[in-house]
Amino acid sequence: MPNAARRRLAAMVLAVSSLVLSAGIAADPPSAVDRKELAAVVDKASTFLNSRQAANGSFSAQRVGPGVTALVTAGLIRHGRSDDPVVQKAIKYLEGSVKPDGGVYDRGLANYVTSVSLVAFGEANTGGRYDTVIANGAKFLKGLQADESIDAKDERYGGVGYDGQSRPDLSNTAYFLDALEAAGVGKDDPAVQRALAFVSRCQNLPGEHNDRPFAKKATDADRGGFVYTATEPRADDPRRTPAGGLRSEGSMTYAGLKSMLYAGVSKDDPRVKAAVAWVRKNYTLDASPGQGTTGLYYYYHVFAKAMEAFGETPFADAAGGRHDWRADLYAALKKRQRPDGSWVNDNGAFMENNPDLATAFAVLALSYCVPARK
Fold first, then answer.
1. Which of 5-9, 98-102, 225-229 has the lowest mean pLDDT?
2. Which end of the chain is less packed: N or C, by CB atoms within 10 Å?
3. Total structural domains in the chain?
4. For residue 26, what is the DSSP state?
5. 6 assigned to some structural domain
6. Preceding peptide of 233 cis, ω within 30°
7. What's the mean per-residue pLDDT of the chain?
8. In 228-293, which residue ranges form alpha helices assigned H by DSSP?
9. Phi, psi for 249 (deg, rounded to 5)
10. What is the CATH number of the domain that holds 68?
């Protein structure tokens, strides 16, 4: 190419780049993750899951009812595998688990299991096939929420626990919001805004949205991050800090961040800014900050959903490093996949030593490792 033509081409590229930057458009660069390599990793996982599936289509149902089955189903469908025999058998099992009250459950854990099941039905809802199931499930979930039947200043207000109001926590409330998002419930819906009030009270950020004493005792290291529950810590609580606050945790911070974004909170809101600042200081895929390997695959899943919802690629950490978070996540998961295609956490907390559950979370997380097709 002649030098003059090269100069004209360079000038055009510079002009287009300037226009993009001046317009404030953050172009999402092509993913560094090779789709064929990713498909091969998921193929191995699918083969493993096929070997683990019960005759009735379920996974680990003897422990948590339909919950793990729903996670497996949603993950494989997100990889374009709706027609896989594993998925077809699993979705039939989930259909048979729907109760007359709209919930999807078997052995308790009604909020958790119904929430992940609605996400699975949402992924499978071609042609409105599951519109009624999803609508009834969303209504059922709303009935589990701590609502105006208690004082709005109560720390439980807006939250949801495994089976309802008994002990609300951020993880279950985040799943609840995932389900309402999948059901198409609007961000202004009272149930969504109540949940946002609870989520805000789980953030180490004192102010108008959180008057809990633990938030006022947050250290600089914990400020902006999220905790599992807004309940004041006991003196012997291992999450308690020397200052009397609660230690921020990686998985809860990503769960809180995505929940706020799902509830319509602006990226310019102080709560979102504080959460993102904490993430920038604690960006890692080697472990879950504040938790180590505890719930590691759950961490990978909520990391992926929050990063996609926030939409910054590459993601800048507090030290100025820039990360292709999708490639980082893919690498972290690929190196942990076992020869049989599964993932297992040697740390048995939260049941992640169960390969069905750990593999389900890993497959779901991998579905975010390439940008969604436009």
1. 5-9
2. C
3. 1
4. -
5. no
6. no
7. 91
8. 250-262, 270-281
9. -125, 145
10. 1.50.10.20
